[in-house]
Amino acid sequence: MEVIVIDTPQLGDRSYLVHDGSVALAIDPQRDTDRIEAAARDAGVTITHVAETHLHNDYITGGLILARAHGASYLVNAADPVAFERTPVTDGQTVQVGSLTVKAVATPGHTHTHVSYIVDDGRKQAVFSGGSLLYGSVGRTDLVAEADTVGLTHDQYASVRRLVAESGHDAALFPTHGFGSFCSSGPATGARSSTIGEQLAANHALTDPDEDHFVRQLIANLTDHPSYYAHMSPANVRGPGPADLSVPESLDAAELTRRLDDGEWVVDLRRRVAFASSHLKGSVSFEYGTGSSFTTYLGWVLPWGDPLTLVGSQEDLQNAIRDLSRIGIESPDAAVGTEPHVLAPQAALASYPRVGWDGVLAGRAAGDTVLDVRRSDEFAASRVVGAVNVPLHELLLRLEDVPAGKLWVHCGSGYRAGVAASLLQRAGRDVVHIDARFADAESSGVPVDRTAA
Questions:
Q1: How many CB atoms neighbour CB 361 within 10 A?
Q2: What pLDDT digit, counting tens, does each position of 247-290 carry?
Q3: Residue 160's closest CA among 181, 182, 179, 186?
Q4: 268-290 b/e with 16+ CB inside 10 Å = b?
Q5: For the chain, which end, N or C, has fewer CB atoms within 10 Å of the first or last residue's CB respectively?
Q6: In whole angstroms, what is the distance from residue 411 CA to residue 260 CA?
Q7: For the chain, how long is the longest CA-to-CA vector?
Q8: Are 236 and 61 in contact (CB under 8 A)?
């Protein structure tokens, strides 16, 4: 048995291709299935089976697309109310994939119908746990419905115990979430690999002997999750089609200018340093970078379903369109180029100051506001003395809560603050982008309050 990892750091997820040298099973594939198909070609194997651990809340699945393209059996929980043909699996059922035996184990918690898969080649096991047992923690349990969260958290506690009881201690563990995904909860680690035995010794879901304590603690530590999650599971129930990953023909200057004048969402993919220096007035900054939070925050912050125009280099546009397809943002328009005055010569340009913490100390005047756009749980843990908190994902809905006057905008690293500064400037506010790590604020001389908020 060989397991090939297909990593999607932009969403904090992994897909897997497990094979015996001849035939393969794909597990939790993302919508851009060409990556997993390339892995199969490189390994010289045929994809005969595709499996889902659950109806995903954080991305559009590529499972149906992949299974149809390869004539593969599509393993989906029999209890999932999907609108397409699949090979229904039930708890305890085994499926043969070449020389590999695949056993489905019901592991409700992340969702009601979550299943994990134990794959055995006769010598070793691999456990594919989806959003059940993660490295250091478990999948979050509040994505189905608020009324179900307590029950699902109890289910999660029992499920991971059952999963490890049915697995060998030396079995390799392969979760789908937990690598930065908002689908993970608690102290999920950044480990690259682990075994069932290692998790038995270190995972709080397995080491806490008090189920009620575990449930209380997990729920208390759940943070906000992206609003676009609400659209993922319904799309996966319907059965998503293939994505169009092509870059469309570039908009001409007149049309781009019209969109800016009409207040449409024009997203600049350039680095936030370049954007602050000069950009098309009315555009907003979502810096693109492989492994960045671009996909998560664009899908979370901008109104779902509004027309979208991306502006950037050909390479960034190609990558951004691929990334956005994974969360169901389909075929945005594009303007290819990185020089604002060339893209739309008749459009107005804008800029704003960008500083570090030393610039805040030197330039902030009395009456100016430090605006913290981190999540509320981050702000509660520690904050600049006197700062006002409006989380980035709430900003467009809470513009009236932002104090008048000059705004010095910061976050944890500078990324979210860059997005927020552009949104605020678009709304007519006077902004300064603090492009610095919050962790460096105190050592730079900026007073930080660490008392519980």
A1: 13
A2: 999 999 999 999 999 999 999 999 999 999 999 999 999 999 86
A3: 186
A4: bbbbbeebbeebbbbbbbbbbee
A5: C
A6: 27
A7: 72
A8: yes
